[in-house]
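Collaborator request, handled under Task 6.
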Amino acid sequence: MVEATYLTVAVPNCVADDFGGEIVALNLDTGFYFSLRDLAAAVWRDLAAGHSVESVLGPLGAQAPHLAEDATRLIDRIQSEGLMQPAVAVVLAEGDPSVATFIAGGMTSLVIDSYDDLRDLVMTDPIHEVVEEVGWPVRREDA
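Structure tokens returned to the collaborator:
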């Protein structure tokens, strides 16, 4: 019997939220934030809800082997970017993963976009690197 792999959001170094179906995840250690939409967002939601990696990959591989391969690369990237990590304690999800619904609807895009345009702001120390009179988010020039 193969042991299941579970992931969880890598708190406190990562914060993430669902904005109308788009997952936006911010790595507080690097200042990079990521956008996952459509099927990629469904993979994230399923993993964060307590579905195993294998139960998420199963429906994708049944639809098309390349989808399972693409999803494996996506999950590897989510982990390497510090957004999710192996779960220590698992709260099992109820029901089936939602990825099957997305593929049935024709959504097969597994894209994760990364951005660093707010990196300087995110990485600013709000106590020591700001203009005292104004405060965060105005950085001191010598910081």
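The cover message to the collaborator said: "The chain has a mean pLDDT of 88. The longest helix spans residues 65-80. Please let us know whether this matches your experimental observations."
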